[in-house]
């Protein structure tokens, strides 16, 4: 006989899920949109949607459910607001350590990609999802994931041809298309 679940059990499970996954999900949201405040808003909305459906999602893969909401909402938000971001703060200064230089070069390069391509790269290489899982998260076909990934990697090579050379040596990532 299956255990009887109460509303309190659901709340505890949801809270535990959020506490254990929120930092990784926030990093992924930031990589997708490139703005910390927008990433926080996206994640908050995705977690709210998860809370509303927790009872039906908790036994499956709630992480995949939140990621799908997160990436779809990010692309939808971008479509509604195709404009330039204004900032009250100057851009970050390049640090002298190799990791900092590489990180900034990759951040700038990701910022030049359209949102769907950025989402595909984040899902495939940051979240380490398969092509099929990426397609499911974004609500597109596997062929679309492949073509968007190919185009995104080609664009990254154009805007940051050899990030390893910029930071001195083999510290850069090698991307195969």
General description of the model:
- The chain is mainly α and 177 residues long.
- 70% of the residues lie in helices and 0% in strands.
- The protein has eight helices and no strands.
- It is globular.
Topology:
Blueprint: H1 7-33, H2 36-57, H3 62-80, H4 98-111, H5 115-126, H6 131-138, H7 142-159, H8 163-166
Q: What is the count of helical runs?
A: 8
The best one-word shape is: globular
Q: Into which percent range does the helicity of residues fall?
A: over 70%
Q: What is the distance, rounded to the nearest whole angstrom, between the alpha carbons of the first and last residues?
A: 50 Å
Major sheet description:
none
- Report the mean per-residue pLDDT as an integer: 79
Low-confidence stretches: 164-177
The total of beta strands comes to 0
Using the CA coordinates, give the radius of gyration: 18 Å
Strand-residue proportion: under 5%
N-to-C series of helices and strands: HHHHHHHH
Structural class: mainly alpha
Features of this protein?
177 residues, mainly alpha, 8 helices, 70% helix, disordered C terminus
What's a quick, concise take on this entry?
The chain is an all-alpha fold and 177 residues long.
